[in-house]
Amino acid sequence: MAGELSPIDKAKFVAAKRAAQFVEDGMRVGLGTGSTAAWLVRCLGEMVRDDGLRIKGVPTSTRTAQLAREVGIEVISLDEAKWLDLTIDGADEFDGELNLIKGGGGALLQEKIVATASDQMVVIADIGKEVETLGAFPLPVEVIPFGWQTTQALVEETLISMDVLGRTSTLRMNGDIPFVTDEGNYILDLHLNRIGNARQLSLVMNQMPGVVENGLFIDICDAVVIGYGDGRVEVRDINEGTVDRDRLDFVETDNLFSDLSD
Ligand code: 5RP
Question: Where are the transmembrane segments (predicted)?
Answer without folding.
Answer: none
